[in-house]
Write a structure and sequence with these properties.
Strand order of the largest sheet: 1-2-4-3
EC number: 4.2.1.96
CATH topology: Gyrase A, domain 2
Number of domains: 1
Organism: Actinoalloteichus hoggarensis
Structural class: alpha+beta
Protein name: Putative pterin-4-alpha-carbinolamine dehydratase
Distance between the termini: 34 Å
Bound molecules: the ligand C[C@H](O)[C@H](O)[C@H]1CNC2=NC(N)=NC(=O)C2=N1
GO molecular function, one term: 4-alpha-hydroxytetrahydrobiopterin dehydratase activity
Pfam family, one: Pterin_4a
CATH class: Alpha Beta
Number of helices: 3
């Protein structure tokens, strides 16, 4: 089972994950997409990745704005699984934006 990262390890991960912040026991990123269908397409792609890894984000969908919250429930905090998923979400968002 993945273990909680230390505060220092989380800070180092956040330095690489520029669009993410820490909120207590979770990594959080807000993403603004141009439209609702594009936001849902990002959610669907992230859902595929989450299923394949058996590691699932909390996702808030409000029109074309998404907020992802990543935490490892079984560990009670942030683990390497959350850092990996954050990077993968960044990749999905970049592709959706054509970057
Ligand atoms: C049984 C299943 O493997 C577990 O419930 C998985 C599913 N997805 C999960 N997702 C997250 N974010 N944390 C978990 O601890 C977790 N556990």
């Amino acid at each position: 089972m993945a273990e909680q990262l230390s505060d220092d390890e989380i800070d180092k991960a956040l330095a690489r994950l520029g669009d993410w912040r820490r909120d207590g026991d979770a990594l959080v990123r807000r993403v603004d997409l141009p439209s609702f269908p594009e936001a849902v397409a990002v959610v669907n792609r992230v859902a595929e990745i989450a299923e394949s890894e058996d590691h699932h984000p909390d996702i808030d969908i409000r029109f074309s704005t998404l907020v992802f919250r990543l935490s490892t429930h079984s560990a009670g905090g942030i683990t390497r699984l959350d850092v990996t998923l954050a990077q993968e979400i960044d990749n999905v968002v970049d592709v959706a934006r054509g970057q």
